[in-house]
Design a protein that fits this description.
It is a single chain. With 305 residues, this protein is α/β, with parallel strands linked by helices. It folds into two domains: 188 residues, 3-Layer(aba) Sandwich (Rossmann fold); 100 residues, Orthogonal Bundle (Arc Repressor Mutant, subunit A). The chain is 44% helix and 17% strand. The relative contact order is 0.10.
Length: 305
């Protein structure tokens, strides 16, 4: 068995190495087609779409996870491609949400809970927004899949702008759906864990606050709260280091994996608005003057239950 089978990932979920090989093959066969040779190397992989749908459903972004619905925002996808990808994901807990404009997409990413972004690069080029991802990376750190007519040429500049992977836009819906599932799983289940053992112990509670990495669920005093990805990562970092004073530089590097180039005060404020009974007199996240912030394992005082 290969490594994918050893890790519990269904055979129908492609690895990135397989994707790269399929894309390279598709280019070769595309050139052959022009001279009259047969092509469609991706079809060799897609032997049974119904079986693949069941595999995605059975995997469900990690057995043992709290079942919840995840949302992928799409920009510039054709109706046919959108419907095809969603059809493959029918039995999974990942739903596609289309955005009509980049302005609407930016607003949704800033104000709503979005777990994945799929962007058609050719659409961005058609409206003169090739570098749109640069601004989006100031809002969110969710996985970004860029669909391109020429990924071999576009991968480097897109990754530099903030994309996680650049995929052949004329590839199969099944391939794109599998990549979406793999990227989402990496973001929601694995990225916050350093070992597989830690992933299995992905939920824990400190004081009043319960957090679950797999489902990205948060409860305060038993009541669910909704956090955007940036706030969730911040709370998780605090909860992994209770009663430790954390500087802005540490928060940027370890919670968000970015260099310290922007203030963290606004994110602290937003998080307090969601978890504190009185954000003006916080009991969970304390400010340490001129040093940073400290998360305390506060318990019980403001709970109704």
């Amino acid at each position: 068995m290969g490594r994918a089978a050893d890790s519990g990932i269904p055979d129908s979920v492609v690895t990135l190495a397989q994707v790269a090989q399929m894309v390279r093959s598709s280019y070769s066969n595309s050139n052959s087609t022009k001279s009259g040779a047969a092509s469609a190397p991706l079809s060799l992989y897609i032997n049974n779409t119904e079986k693949s749908r069941k595999d995605i459903s059975n995997y469900n972004l990690g057995k043992g996870s709290i079942c919840m619905e995840y949302r992928a925002l799409t920009i510039g996808l054709t109706d046919e491609l959108f419907s095809g990808i969603q059809a493959v994901l029918t039995s999974s807990n990942l739903r596609l949400t289309p955005s009509l404009t980049v302005g609407d997409a930016g607003h949704m990413l800033d104000q709503q809970i979005i777990h994945l972004l799929i962007v058609n690069l050719e659409y961005l080029r058609s409206i003169g927004q090739d570098d749109w991802l640069t601004g989006i990376r100031r809002i969110t750190f969710i996985p970004v899949i860029v669909l391109s007519d020429n990924p071999e040429q576009d991968t480097s500049p897109m990754v530099e702008l903030g994309a996680d992977i650049c995929v052949y836009s004329k590839g199969s819906c099944l391939m794109i759906a599998n990549i979406a599932v793999a990227q989402l799983r990496r973001s929601t289940k694995y990225n916050q864990c350093h070992t597989s053992g830690e992933a299995k112990r992905s939920s824990f509670q400190i004081g009043d606050i319960f957090i679950d990495l797999s489902s990205r669920a948060v409860e305060v005093c038993g009541q669910p709260v909704t956090l955007r990805p940036r706030e969730f990562a911040l709370l998780l970092y605090f909860m992994k280091h209770p009663d430790v004073v954390l500087t802005a530089d540490q928060i940027c590097k370890h919670a968000w994996r970015i260099e310290y180039t922007q203030p963290v005060g606004q994110s602290i404020y937003d998080l307090r608005q969601q978890i504190e009974a009185n954000p003006n007199k916080p009991c969970y996240i304390k400010t340490v003057y001129r040093v940073g912030y400290r998360f305390t394992a506060h318990s019980g005082e403001f709970c109704d239950n």
